[in-house]
Amino acid sequence: MAEPGDWKEEDLSREMKNWSRHEVREWVLKLDHVDDSVAEMLFQQDINGSSLLLLEPADFTGLGVTLGPTKLIIHARDQVGKLEHEEPASSMNQPGGPCKPYPFGRYNDTYRFIEGNFLDVTESGALDLIEPCHEYKGFIHTTAETKMLKFTAEVVRFAAACMNCRTNGTIHFGIGDKPEFTHGEVLGVVAEDREAFTKELRSAIEGYFQPKQRPAAQICIKPPRFVEVLNRNMTPTNKCVIEVDIVPDSTICEGAYHTYSVNVKKTKKKAKAYETDQTEAKSVPQFFVRDGGSSRDLLLPTTSAKPREEYNQFVAGLPHLSQRRKRAEEERLGVVRSSTQGSRLVQMVTGGSLSLDKSCFEQYVIVTNRSDVVHFESLGFLVELNPTAVLDFDPESSPHGLQHHFEQQSPLNRHLPVQYKITEGVEDIADKLKLTRRTSWIFCNGGVENEAPSNMDRWLIEKGASVRDVISFLCRKNVLPNKRFLVVFLLWSAVTEKMDPLVETFSTFLQELKGKDQILCICDSQNGFTSWRDLIDARCGIDISDRCIYELSFAEVNGTVLSLLSKNRRTQRILPSGGGSKVFLEKKVERSLNTLDILCMNQCEGGNEDKLDIEENFYTGRKVSWWNFHYSDQPGSMPFIKRDKFDFIMDTVIPDMCSLRRACVLFNLMHLPGCGGTTLAMHILWTLRDRFRCAVLRDRHAEFPEIAEQVVKLLTYKKEEQLPQVPVLLMVDDFDDMEKVLELQQLIEKECVKKHIQSKSPQVVLLNCMMSESLCDTETLDRVFVGNNLSDKEQKLFEEKLIEIEKTYKNAQETFYGFMFIKKNFSSAYAQGVASKTLKSFNLTQKPSQLLAVLVLMHVYCKGASLSVSLCEEFLAFHGKPIFGTVKVEDLFGKFSTLMTSCTVQSKVVHQGFQIKYSSIARFCLEELEKTHNVSKLDIADLLLTTDKFFENIQGKDKLLQDIHHILVKRYHSVEESQFSPLVQNIIKETPGLEEMVLKNASKRFEKDAVIAQLLARYYYLKKRDFLEAKFWAKKAKELSKDNSYIADTLAQVIKHELKNVISSSKEGPITPETMEMSLTLAGSAISAFKEAQHLAKKESIQRLAVRTDNSPFNTSGCLGEIQVGILLIEVLEKTPVFSSDNVRHDILRQVLSGELKLEAIESSDRSKSKYRLYYYNLRNFEDVIHDLKNRMKKNFEFLDNYFVNLSSRFGTTDIREQVAQNELFRCFEKYAKHFCRTDSTSLLNKSMLKLLQARQYLELHKADTYTGILRFLSNGVSPDTLEKVARTYEFLCERNPTVKDRVNFLYANVVLSRLKLQSPLIKPYTKLTHFLSETLRLPIPLSENLPLHFMAVLLLWPQQNLLSPELRNLSHYISQVRTSYHTVMDDVCNGKRPVIHFFLGRRQQGYERLVHLGAIRRCVAASQEEFPSMWENGKLWKDKRVEELLCRVSGQVKGDSILAETCCPEVKLEVAPVFRGQLSGRPAGSKVSFFLGFTMKGPLALDISEL
């Protein structure tokens, strides 16, 4: 049943039996002489349409309704029923559709309007002077006192404009316009005294015009016409549309027609009264002309230096305009049809906008047959239309036909129809085909890829079905924008056969588009047209004459379409080149660089964009455009506001960046939302467009290798070898992950290497404009922060700008939210006020409010979230004309439109969308909805997930699903890891318990999504402690994604948390056998699950290495999880009576878990074994898990230490998730050490055994039993005294038959101790240590010790003066062995990582002192933790004088992708790999370079390579 808010008056046109009780009430309320209380009685009794038809007079009497109203209601009911029977049911309740205007200049035609229909002509200015222009007036917000005044004033205004422009016109009263109504919607007005309108109009003409012009005005302005308006069921509405025609005949109109504003009180007087006050009236002259869809006064006061210049020019051109009018009348009289073909083409190809720059069509689809060589001269218009798809039926098109010639001017992708068959997601197919990014040329009759063409009589059978698939695909609502693309049939050759494929193609398009209004047919002969028209008429039964252009040659078509381009779009675009030269940017090249929005030197020059419109859009909050900078640069304009950071970036940061040695350098501009960061970044590009090749990344989701390729292509475009290369300045915006930006930087460098581009200086500067997560971000030389606080200087500039703005925009402070928010220094109170004011009429039951709420929620929790225009239209049931052009925000969102803006969404299918303008205000809107309108985040999320319309196959669906998925799943990690996404966490906080409903609804919308199922599993085990439900969702996630290690880990985590829950639920004291059994079962299951996760993690890593495009790091959670379960299992066993009585029992447990002691032996010697029978039974069942526990834990500890110590993030950034993992690893190791690194039953061991055991336990306690643990002493802040004890312990072990591992660790202990406490007496002299190393190298080396030993060999044996080891001859072999061992040990886990440089070669050339570790460099430069990684990445670290004094610069020669490093031994040259390959790119083999040397587990590396 409809709710009150859902009822609309027009719904009463449905059959009475279908009326709801609300509709019955509204119907009774409209009956004359029936009291309103009767309607309420029926409403309270739930009387709907069906029950109303059954009511008898006695029923009304029983309700207390008197006889009079009863008779009236029954009579009215019967009349409605009678009408329904007279008219077919199918005619009832038809939605409003397009209709033609009343014939111009006619009065007695039997023509009536239907309420709710809309006129299919747009409001416009002068067309061909004969075709009438139109203006619509709703005429509904008028009082009885002002109605006639408004009518006469509007008619005179419109008439004067038409007369001055010499164009016919009609002004309509009772026709709605946007934003309240559909453009041209028939509303109707009540005109009781129609004669009064005619009299008042004639009287007003006398008052507004000068006496000498009144006769002409009276003739040109025709009497009002009253066109009857009917209901949809054809019953009278008692309303009409009032129309006035204007006919400025050339024999009547002469000169300029001025009108004069008249005092309101005097408008009621007759002509004589006007004349008596003529002096006063003439004080305010007006001169109206048609300007688009409205009339404009050229004498309106302006701030222009030449206020009457436009007026003078227009008046001077009036004689010429009069001549045009006269010729137009003569041509019309001669019925010269060709006079309309050009204008019809203009109208149809632009959808009525008359400009290709602002075409109402977003995209074009071309259907074409065989062309001739003469046609190629007229191909320009087709290139400019930049069609989305071309359906080509010419099999010769590719070798030497249309496709061949088109490709010479514009890039395209070749396709066969079979590629459009739907075998997977529609948007996935479109993405693979790059359908909306580059012209798709579809060969519909073979001719490519060995596809043979078909004869005409066989085409339908052999290829018809596949071409139908193409058409069906293109016309889907989620591919091309509904009603906003045009299909153009270019009939280069005549179609004369009924079996011609184009006839079937037309028929298919006609069916898919449900009509011909989106189809345009162009041929160049009358005969060709006649044949085509007749064939279509025979095949489809329709006349397409009104959709055909046939009296123009293709040369004329080409010229006509090209004339619709602005001068700016016709102008060749210019790029800077070397030595101050310039080059033209070819259109084909620019279109091929489709991931980049290129900013040219002559950007915007010759453009025809509306300056006021551009400025208003910007100041109201829309993103800045190049036009804003262009207009600010024009003479007489106030310069664009320069933020304080502008000069710092221009004068300091950019020159500093350009002095670095990397091929691609990165500069970060961090900013808070709405604080002008993006505007500042674009201002920098605009200013530098003469010195750099500037571009903005269109789509951050594009494939990074493709972006890198296009950036380098822009860099090298028309490069002259003898001139210096102009670098590219690329702005990237809205990335939410710094790793992604750094990855793009790395790929650009790789592309430079691939193209052998030298990088003595940066070739690409990345300007990364990114929102900051901190209110006060750290600034460095390559990191600038724009916050929410204006300086005094900036505030003054904004005050001055406001004064200038208010000269043009009087209400700027009321509507320019974007500007005012910054001007008021980012005032929260202002933003709150805007939110409160704008949302005053918010009502969640109304569709626009629902869309607004969804957009606000999405915007707050997902950057760049949007809803497609098509979705908004469908959701709001916005039924425009079949071709209604670009939809404005105001049309759909009404009062909320001030918060919205349109945007181009770079998704799988590029489309137009709506999004919130103000990031800074969106958050306050969300708060306002909850505070004032009681609409919570839960309510909006529920609305979003339960509304089917959001999930229908409409354009932009895939992007919407991604955004919804993001706000539900995306977590932001901190040191204390967040459990859920910010939205889910906020819902849990604000409406606890109800979040489960949201997540369950999400699982229904994303049934096949493993991550959503994983989210449910995490929710149930973390929040609900419902482990059964959690396992259900975890297993479902695993079924959906069997090979994903993170999904597998979730199931393991569920079991682990259930184990924790069982342990925490057990009472203090000994554990029961039942609890023990359950715990052991869960522990065994968890360990198995974590092992599976580890296996999958290694499998994923190997796959990533093979592909080399996925840089995701190794998933360590499986290893850590197994360790955590081990700790829990120890806790369980310690509570078991078998192991919990005394210290000896503790040692027994340690031995059992270490695999040193069997359970059988313990049980056999236990005097209480009968008492503990159940415990022993359970232990035996899980003996394999228990005996192997310590070894597995130790193996995982060593694995993770190796991973974290030897590998770092690719870009030196801090990975918070890894920090969290390492903190947990430390906690677990403390518990592990407490259990395994002490011996309580010392009396059972002899002194020698005890000393060895305690020595090894000491080393293990301090993680010094592995080389990675010893290396960790360099950074973990532990006292050198501890390391001294470690060195002493290893010296003790090395005296007692040491293993190779002991010897290796002894080497590491000495080297690391020397870097922490050089004066320590426990350090072995360098020469003795190298001798010890040589001895070790001669021993059989286990595989596990290969890598650490050979690393130490390379480090200690690197040649130095006066200290040459015999092992030096093998040094090249050791370097090779290090690299081989690294790949053997680390290949499974190194993806997305780079090796840590443990030591650098220092300037001091002797012994330990020449080894410099990273901590020493950190202390040397005293950089902050945030600053140091960026200094490392961009190379500034190596330019620091203190670093240069600390490190040794090595010389070498380039050899392919590596360097042969020179040493103090001339005959010894060692191969060193560069950290950044780009620093070697373009350098010829043998060229001399210098560099700093670093030592990693992957071998020696060269840093800061420079030419000698």
Descriptors:
disordered N terminus; 63 helices; single chain; alpha/beta; 1508 residues; seven-stranded parallel sheet; globular; six-stranded mixed sheet
Could you explain the architecture of this structure?
Strands 16-17-15-14-18-19-20 form a 7-stranded parallel β-sheet, sandwiched between helices. Strands 23-25-26-27-24-28 form a 6-stranded mixed β-sheet, sandwiched between helices. The longest helix has 35 residues, at 1073-1107. It starts with 20 loop residues before the first helix and ends with a strand. Residues 1-11, 87-94, 263-282, 335-339 and 881-885 have low confidence and may be disordered. It contains 63 helices and 40 strands. 48% of the residues lie in helices and 12% in strands. The protein is of the alpha/beta class.
Q: How many DSSP H or I helices?
A: 63
Distance between the termini: 85 Å
How many strand units?
40
Radius of gyration: 41 Å
The global form is globular
Mean residue pLDDT: 86
Low-confidence stretches: 1-11, 87-94, 263-282, 335-339, 881-885
Structural class: alpha/beta
Q: What summary fits the major beta sheet?
A: 7 strands, parallel
| Major sheet strand order | 16-17-15-14-18-19-20
Q: What portion of the residues fall into strands of 2 or more residues?
A: 5-15%
Percent helix, as a range, is: 40-55%
